[in-house]
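Note to self: the last two entries modelled the partners one at a time, which told us nothing about the interface. This time every component goes in together.
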Amino acid sequence: MQTGPVNLTEALASFQDVYSPRIVARINDYDVKIAHTEGEHVWHVHADTDEFFLVLDGQFDIALREAGGEERTVTLHRGDVFVVPRGVEHKPSSSGGAILMFEPSGTASTGDRYEGAIPTHVDSTTGHALG
Amino acid sequence: MQTGPVNLTEALASFQDVYSPRIVARINDYDVKIAHTEGEHVWHVHADTDEFFLVLDGQFDIALREAGGEERTVTLHRGDVFVVPRGVEHKPSSSGGAILMFEPSGTASTGDRYEGAIPTHVDSTTGHALG
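The predicted structure of the combined assembly is written out below.
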């Protein structure tokens, strides 16, 4: 058992990379991850899992491709939560901020499938250990 | 798919009950719940699941019974996260605040087993719908 709490503000201050999730907790076979966000992510999809987002700071936008192929963007601010359902193509972007995610351990930040090239400022990872 | 985000501050303002979790999101077969906290909860245990806590506001203490039977208390403030592992008896208490929890859908707020009587200010529930 962990001995004490992890403070999210301190955890976020311990690294600078954007779109490079750190794992702050594990619950059963799920991970809680945090990430700094800035700029455009990549269109990607998780075929087998929903993905939960909580905005800890700043603004975070999620472009979504709906069933009919129509695109829309959900804009999230601090304290907002949103779930991207499995199978829905999405592309995060941000003017700067930080997010918390819940998803099964081993879920890749760029999905099972992504579109085009992964930008150099986006880390394709299942999450790194904190500090 | 939900059309827009849920704001946790607004969600918390929509009800007053303490220790009566509301479900704000579902990810696969897991729920994200929020609750106001104040006073003593009850000693209880979840045999089959870990339980994740994030303090959204105020202070939240978790008394824990360790393997040897020894008791210790973890004190959490806003922005702190902590996981109570499955099988560990615990009793939350709070001088006032709010928390977010992440656990499998159907997890009861008072565990599979609790000690003594459930205080009247503690709701034994797997979570209520918001609003």
